[in-house]
Amino acid sequence: MANHHILSVLVENKFGVLTRVSSLFSRRGYNIYSLAVSPTEDDRYSRMTVVVDGDADLVEQITKQLNKLIPVIKISELADSDAVERELMLVTIKGGADARSQATELASIFEAKILDVGYESLTLMVAGQPEKLDAMTDLLKPFGIVELQRTGRIALPKLARRPARLRAVKSRSA
C-alpha cells in the first residue's frame, strides 16, 4: 500500500512557478501522485496541493528542495487526520434508456450530479474523498466507462474544535 503525503504549498501566483516546482520533482526523480493548483483568496498567491508517495525522509528532502525556490512562500504537510480533502471526478458511461435508471440511482447514492445525457451515454460529476471516487468507479465499470477524468486531491487543514476563551468584562455601573 502506498504511503501518501499531502503537501500544501503556497507560492507566488506568477508565470512559470508551476514549471519550476514540477521541474524540481522530475530532476530529483520524485513521482507526483496528484497535483492540483489554483489561486487562493489573495490573487497574489496560488496553492499547490501535491500528493507524493514515500517515507518521511523523502518528504523532508522534497520540502527542503521546495523551500530553496524563491516563489515558494510556505509548505505544510497535512496529515490525513488533520486535513479536509476532496477530489472531483467527471465520468462518461454507456447508458441507453434501459441503464439510465440504474445509473441515476447510483448517482443519487453517491451524491453525484448528472451533467449531460446523450442517446447512448451520460456524464456524471462526483466529489468527495478519493476512496469514494474509487468505489463509484468500480460500480460504474459494468456500465462501460467511456471517459474518466479526476482533478487530483485538494486539501486544507481542519479547523480548530476548541471554543474560544471568553473573558469576563466588567460592566460600568451608572
Protein model, in words:
It is a single chain. The protein folds into two domains: 4-78, 2-Layer Sandwich (Alpha-Beta Plaits), CATH 3.30.70; 84-157, 2-Layer Sandwich (Alpha-Beta Plaits). 28% of the residues lie in helices and 39% in strands. The protein is built from four helices and nine strands, in the order βαββαββαββαββ. The radius of gyration is 21 Å and the shape is globular. The model has no long low-confidence stretch (mean pLDDT 90).
User: Could you give the count of β-strands?
Assistant: 9
**Any idea what the CATH superfamily of the largest domain is called?**
ACT domain
Q: What class do helices, strands and sheet pairing give?
A: alpha+beta
Provide mean pLDDT, rounded: 90
CATH fold name of the largest domain, please?
Answer: Alpha-Beta Plaits
Number of domains: 2
CATH domain class name of the largest domain: Alpha Beta
Q: What's the CATH architecture name of the largest domain?
A: 2-Layer Sandwich
Low-confidence stretches: none
Largest sheet entry = 5 strands, antiparallel
What oligomerization state is this entry in?
Answer: single chain
Shape: globular
Strand content: 35-45%
**Secondary structure tally, helices:** 4
- One letter per element, helices H and strands E, the order comes to EHEEHEEHEEHEE
- How far the N terminus sits from the C terminus, by CA atoms, comes to 70 Å
Kindly state the percentage of residues in helix.
Answer: 25-40%
